[in-house]
Write a structure and sequence with these properties.
Helix content: under 10%
Order of helices and strands: EEEEEHEEEE
Strand order of the largest sheet: 3-4-9-6-7
Distance between the termini: 54 Å
Oligomer: single chain
Strand content: over 45%
Largest sheet: 5 strands, antiparallel
Number of strands: 9
Number of helices: 1
Shape: extended
């Protein structure tokens, strides 16, 4: 990018092309002790996710609630004719050990709520 004022070059800058991340994630620990992990897989292919817990943390988690938005086309919308076309899938899994493994489907948004 170049910027001129009165035919004088004031700025000459090379703009880098934006490269999006292929997996976005964040985690937060609530006051109640619950841990919430949010993930977004922007690729069309699935990704393997493995979360590990420290020694003292692994004893705390007994189950994980999973809320997944997956399997929809990008243009899918709820409507009066089809009010449940885009809804999260919810399931609960038991945690054993100090880690948790999950396959993130392509083009998905998944929230994990780890509870005692």
């Amino acid at each position: 990018m170049q910027a001129y004022i009165d035919d004088v070059l004031y700025c000459d800058h090379i703009c880098k092309k934006a490269v999006p991340e292929l997996l976005y994630y964040s985690a937060v620990k609530e006051n109640k002790g619950t841990v919430i992990v949010k993930t977004v897989n922007v690729e069309a292919k699935e990704k393997e996710l493995f979360m590990t817990f420290s020694e003292n943390e692994s004893e705390k988690w007994s189950k994980v609630h999973i809320f997944a938005m997956e399997g929809f086309l990008p243009d899918d919308r709820n409507s009066l004719d089809s009010p449940c076309k885009v809804v999260p899938k919810e399931k609960i899994e038991v945690i054993n050990g100090n880690g948790y493994q999950y396959i993130l489907p392509g083009n998905s948004f998944t929230v994990f709520r780890f509870e005692k």
